[in-house]
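From the thread on structure requests for the teaching lab: each student submitted one protein with a one-line request. Submission from student K.M.:

"Model Transcriptional regulator from Streptomyces lacrimifluminis, tokens only."
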Amino acid sequence: MEAADIARVLGVYAQRVITPRGSTAVSGLELMTALRPPTKAVQDPATGNWVSGYNAGSLGVEPMDPAPPEATPEHPVVVNSGWTGGFLSEEAYQWVRSVDLLSDEECTLPFAVGLDLNTAFLAAAARLVVGLSAPDHFHAPKFNPKIPGSWLVDLSHIELDPRLPSPFTPDGTRPTGPAWYQTHTVAYAQELGHDVHPIEAYLRRETGAYLDPWHDRLKTAYVDTLADLGVTKELDDRAFLAAMEQHKQIDPALAAVLGAIKATVKGGVGKLRERPQGKHYKDGEPWPAMQRPTWRPDIRAAVISKARVNMHRKLNNMVRMTGLYPLAVLSDCVVYPSPGDSPLDFLPYAASGKPQPGGFRLGPTPGLAKLEGVQSMLWAVDLMEKGLNPARHIKGGDAVLDEGE
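Reply posted by the TA:
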């Protein structure tokens, strides 16, 4: 890229997102703080002077210890307490359907088509209520889907169709006993019609939609940049697919900005649980990242839990509307068997031609889908038989698992 183009990329990014500070991940985290500053000027009633005070809705100026199940195994909270009660495992999907569960009808379909959800973590951050205060410990609490936190609950009794991944685990396997889950995961079990009886929980009394301004700014940046590349909300699905095929060639510099915006989302979420680095680190020692107010693994877990639940809800609705089951899921990419080489050949549409709500829908906004790639069904089955994930390779090459790391 020419120097002038690099300058333009940085300028547009600074204008639409934030002045770059190091990596996109660092910028993503800095943007959270910039939009929800920890302090504001307040007047001291005694002296009349303006002093620094807590800004409601922010994460404040002091780091906050996580609940033990929300921490990482090397965290001082875990090491110093001797915690052995298990950990949250709210991660992005990495699931492949068993080849034994493929029907003859599916195997005769000629194509495997990959759909990718636009900035799925960003879509999950919208109106996401997270904890703002320290966690409190409860034994046998009644489940409340409105309270953010971590719940120890047994979901292993829930029978689900094995042709879909379990919504409760990142690898899509059925839980084997009690485990820690973020509120959204437990709420989804309830949504599916199951009783949930938490054994214990770490919950936060003060809550707020901390990420809302971050979501709004990045969504606007993403949508505006795509629109500048010719991909607008007004396009019908066929025109949208055609525009997405060409958008990177229209303006490579703006395409780089778009890539940076996406990386800002994923990197920012990942930074909420940055692990220690360096070969001399010893378990139980504090590390620099955990000593900032934005080291919040519970918020990262909330985003990823909601994103995974959103994905499963769409998978479920697709079965209901089309009878189709996915071959594989990797984070925000899902692969379906298809009679044609386009999403238009299997996505649900009403008689009027409008997309059916609830399933996967094509479009340029966060949470809607775009085409990730197309391969032959034989290619997909071959990978599945080898224990590989077609969603990782459907674009051609090797996709990076976006775990928010």
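TA comment: The longest helix spans residues 297-322. The chain has a mean pLDDT of 96.
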